[in-house]
Amino acid sequence: MKKLADKTVVIGLGSPIMSDDAVGLKVSEAIEAMSLPDVDTLQEAVGGLEIIPMISGYRFAIIVDAVQTREYEPGTVLIFDPESFDHTVANVPAHDVNLATAIKIGRQLDNGSMPEIIKFVAVEAEDLQTMSEEMTQKVAAAVGPAKNAVLHLLAEFRGPARKG
What mean pLDDT do residues 87-108 have? Predict the structure, then answer.
């Protein structure tokens, strides 16, 4: 089994021109600005199977994105495991694959290159439909708390139980 790089990748997903959909990009940029030595950051407008090569080879991965469940107040920061989305895994055409299905496929194809731990930091969006480079006020205000959620996960990954 090949050894994973003892690094974390933080991937912000979204579109910079679709209002609140940019929140994942902004959080990843905030982490990138900290220049953490064991963290790589990406800002991407992709989904589905395209995520597999981006997380492959890393020991840990954090994916930051906007969600719209309508169950939470806009700007609420949520942390999920891939298993939280097991109910969404489906046999669908490749262009319709969601992140949970892509991760499952990645683990089936080459589990040894997939991260040991994958976490999702999601921000409840208010507006994902309006073409705008501005996020809504509540979601823009959530960039700091979402960055803190990523930093909390990074601290967990670096914890003493994880060494070795």
Answer: 68
